[in-house]
Amino acid sequence: MNQDRFEALWRRAGGGGEAGRVFEALKGHYSDVSRHYHDCGHIVVCLTAYDEAVSVLGADDGVEMTLWFHDVIFTPGARDNEARSAKWFATQASGFLPEAFISQTCSLIQATDHREPPEGFGAQFAVDVDLWGLSQPWDAFFSDTVDLRREAVHANDEAFAQGQGGFLRALAERSQIYSTPYFQDHSEKSARQNIDRLLSLFESGVDWTQS
Fold first, then answer.
1. CB neighbours of 136 closer than 8 A, spacing ≥ 6?
2. Can you spell out the DSSP letters for 5-32?
3. What digits encode the pLDDT tens for the residues 151-202?
4. 49 near 129, Cβ under 8 Å?
5. How far is CA 91 from CA 86, 109, 123, in A?
6. Contact 198/168 with Cβ under 8 angstroms?
């Protein structure tokens, strides 16, 4: 994760010299040894996908800030990780960034729980970036799935496949996985192909972890 980039964003949003401290705290969470998917690498991937989309969708500091913070708090199996991540961001930003910006970013972070299709352009942009990894080439997509399995210490293989399969199936049942035309054009087809292939593996009865 690029500290200079984070500090520049934080200052554009209205912050100051506390940016370095916030970055170190942020990096500390993402660098925890228990993380295999929701780590520094995931943030770098998200920011790369964001950068590629900016030429079409436009730069948005609220969306970029969301990407930095959306997985900062992560407990395997918990259903409130995004809510807790939003709260952690608000605690770090309180007194330094404008309250309206904090509130907006918290809403965008919450949208990355993917329970409902995102509403509003900012949430759609942030959620599409977070889901970009579904559209990677199969080997990278499957490697991410293995990393997610490694994080899921609370579940056996069957329970993980059931939970992850249910999440992916719910996304695939939407008319569109992605909300913005840019990501629909660039990612929709390959994401659906990856999801279909993985669900077939989960349902096949073979040891998918060795595939």
1. 144, 190, 194
2. HHHHHHHHTT--TTHHHHHHHHHHHHT-
3. 999 889 889 999 999 999 999 999 999 999 999 999 999 999 999 999 999 9
4. yes
5. 9, 14, 21
6. yes
